[in-house]
Write a structure and sequence with these properties.
The protein is an alpha/beta fold and about 375 residues long. Helices cover about 45% and strands about 15% of the residues. The protein is built from 16 helices and 11 strands. The strands form 2 sheets. A 7-stranded parallel β-sheet has the order 4-3-2-1-5-6-7, with helices on both faces. Strands 9-8-10-11 form a 4-stranded mixed β-sheet, with helices on one face. Helix 13 packs parallel to helix 15, helix 14 packs antiparallel against helix 15 and helix 14 runs parallel beside helix 16. The structure holds magnesium ion. Magnesium ion binds next to helix 6.
Length: about 375
């Protein structure tokens, strides 16, 4: 029985993780549920999964859980979250938080030598060098949850990384793939939130529309698989059937395909390197799909992707700045305070005006993250 801590349990990946766990009560049990402010949904999750530990974002919400905890102990705040991620009874930490605030729980789980399902890509973007080094030192294992990275992990099984020529990360192109640059000037949050293929949280859906998501995923792939940026390519594939590919030195290309359903990647992370049956998910019907399409990304429309690759290659504290500036820019866009194309402008400006730190410590990362957020808000 695998005891799982679901961090970010009320978000899109968190709820789907619980769906997978619900299907296999003989394999998985929920040890910890952690969420921010969605206390109503959390109460339902506590009733359904009877966790040992519950963590919420704010102390003032703790009284709302009274009478709903069963045998669980409840705590609030970041320190409690960090402790829960390292709890000795937990076998697997699913980090499904959104944003760089997922970094400290990831680091705690890494120090405790846990298996970590890393759906929180911003963690690896902002401090990939520290997270991977800590995992190596403490025998922790990072397991991809993002659909593209899960596809790469699956396509790597039985092969050596040294035999990889390159990996090809596919992108759906997001909500605006058929919009012209002119049209993008007036794009609104509600336009951007209509993703054609995947059902996801708000932040990642906006990131998909700007292609920042793909940029973050390139950096994530660099850290997860230890490959140089020159060996990571991006191609737009509008059907989201091929989730990513690995090309080997003998020119053989191995891909992972399936219906676009995050539960496949989530379950694979939980069962890796084995597999389990998965109900409810649509089987891939190639005859129904008929054709698959591939195209290059548009450097004008998708500036965020090139900004990310640039920040990734520059290394040091640059990806931290990229990520923090983007998180704030997305927030401002959702509040209709900046335009859609303004997101890339904000990120570019934040990168240009930052003095790079070459080997940032965890304290440096946290400080640069905070300073960048302040800087962007002041603009
Ligand atoms: Mg993805």
């Amino acid at each position: 029985m695998k005891k799982i801590a679901v961090i970010g349990s009320t978000g899109s990946i968190g709820t789907q993780t619980l769906d997978v766990i619900r299907e296999h009560p003989d394999q998985f049990t929920v040890h910890t549920l952690a969420c921010g402010r969605n206390i109503d949904l959390l109460k339902q999750q506590i009733a359904a999964f009877e966790p040992e530990v519950v963590i919420i974002g704010r102390v003032e919400d703790l009284p709302k859980l009274k009478g709903h905890l069963g045998h669980a102990r409840a705590y609030a705040g970041e320190e409690a979250l960090v402790e829960a991620a390292a709890h000795s009874d937990v076998d697997f930490v699913m980090n499904a938080m959104v944003g760089a605030r997922g970094l400290l729980p990831t680091m705690a789980a890494a120090k405790a030598g846990k298996k970590i399902g890393i759906a929180n890509k911003e963690t690896l973007v902002t401090a990939g060098h520290l997270v991977t080094q800590t995992c190596r030192e403490h025998g922790a294992e990072l397991i991809a949850v993002d659909s593209e990275h899960s596809a790469i992990l699956q396509s790597l099984q039985g092969s050596n990384l040294s035999e990889v020529e390159r990996i090809i990360v596919t992108a759906s192109g997001g909500s605006f793939r058929d919009w012209s640059y002119e049209q993008l000037k007036t794009a609104t949050p509600s336009d951007a939130l209509k993703h054609p293929n995947w059902s996801m949280g708000q932040k990642v859906t906006i990131d998909s529309a700007t292609m920042m998501n793909k940029g973050l995923e390139v950096i994530e792939a660099h850290w997860l698989f230890g490959l140089p940026y020159e060996k990571i390519d991006v191609v737009i594939h509008r059907e989201s059937i091929i989730h990513s590919l690995v090309e080997y030195i003998d020119k053989s290309v191995i891909a992972q395909l399936g219906s676009p359903d995050m539960k496949v990647a989530i379950q694979y992370a939980l069962t890796y390197p084995n597999r389990l049956e998965l109900g409810g998910t649509e089987r891939l019907n190639l005859l129904e799909v008929g054709k698959l399409h591939f195209e290059a990304y548009d450097q004008n429309k998708h500036r965020c992707l090139d900004l990310s690759i640039g920040a990734g290659k520059a290394g040091g504290s640059m990806p931290t700045v990229l990520n923090a500036a983007n998180e704030v820019a997305v927030e401002l866009f959702l509040q209709e305070k900046v335009s859609f194309l303004g997101i890339a402008d904000i990120v570019e400006k934040a990168l240009e005006t930052h003095d790079k730190i070459s080997q940032p410590s965890i304290e440096d990362v946290l400080a640069v993250d905070e300073e960048t957020r302040k800087r962007v808000r002041a603009l």
